[in-house]
Each structure stands twice: as structure tokens, then as C-alpha cells.
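Before the break, one more example. Copy the sequence into your notebook; we will annotate it together after we see the structure.
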Amino acid sequence: GDAQGALTAAFRAAATRTLLQEAALAGLTASLTSAGVRVALLKGAATGRTVYDSPAERPVSDFDLLVPRDQVEVARTALVDLGFRELNLPQRGPLGKRLRRFRAELPFAGTGPQYAGLLVELHWALLEMPYYIHRIPMTEVWEAAEPVEPSGAWRPDPATLLVHAAAHLALHHS
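Here is what the structure looks like once it is written out:
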């Protein structure tokens, strides 16, 4: 009845949105890869390909991309060249001082026809908490990463994705 129709309509809308997002993600990963950046998918972009039959079954509102710490500046420049603008976080006062010292991600908002309204978070650690930034061995995360075909991107292994999702939920959304 009504519930089935509503669910069908919601899935169709999600599938359409996902199709557009997938094209944007392909463009992003191709641009980062051509700039020499190794990029891995996190959260919804990763689990939509591992846990579900279709990325449309795991709607996403943004893309969380993991890059090696020493490639952050190259990735930032590549995103800006694509028309993304870095979202400014507070720079003054106690909060700004802490954010600068313990940051492990940069948020970007897309502009232009291809990326308008798209939020991209560039990560170089699995969790943005000072204790974990320096204790999670990112070399091991990258060594266990698996390629995502045909995008040229990578995906952390399923165990890392599970730990990341659980920790993110517990630490950021509790």
C-alpha cells in the first residue's frame, strides 16, 4: 500500500542521487589520483560498496576521503583546482587553537556545475581525536587497503571500516 509506494519512491530518489554522486566521486578520485594522491574511501562511500548490493542502499550526504598525511597539501590543492572551497574553521580563541593543533580532517564544499553542494571531508587519520591520531598505525591501514575498481581509489579492509564506523558513531554521535 502506501508504505510500499513511499519506500519505492524514496529508493528511486536515492538511486538517482547516488548516480549523480557516483559520477562526482569518480571525477574526484580520478583527479586526486592523477595529482599523485593515494585516496581511500571511508564511511558511506566505502560501505555502500562492501556491505550493500548497491551504493544506493547506503545514502551518503558527503564523501569522506582518506589520504596519506604527507599528501594532504597536494590533495587540498587538487580539490581547490576542481572548484572546491575549504570551509573555514575558527582560527581565534581556545577552540581555534585546539582545532589547529589536533586537526585530522579538512572540510570542503563543492562549487560549479559538477560539484555544487557536495561536501568532501579530507581525512589523514581514521579518527579526529588527539589520542587516536597518533596511536592508530596508518601505515598498517594503507598496507591492508584494497583497490576499488575501476576508480583507482582504495578502500580500507572490512575490519578497519567496521572499527572506524563504530568509533565514529561512539565518539562523534553519542
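The helical segments are 2-34, 43-50, 72-81, 93-102, 112-115, 130-133, 138-144, 158-172. The longest strand covers residues 62-66. Try to locate both features in your own notes.
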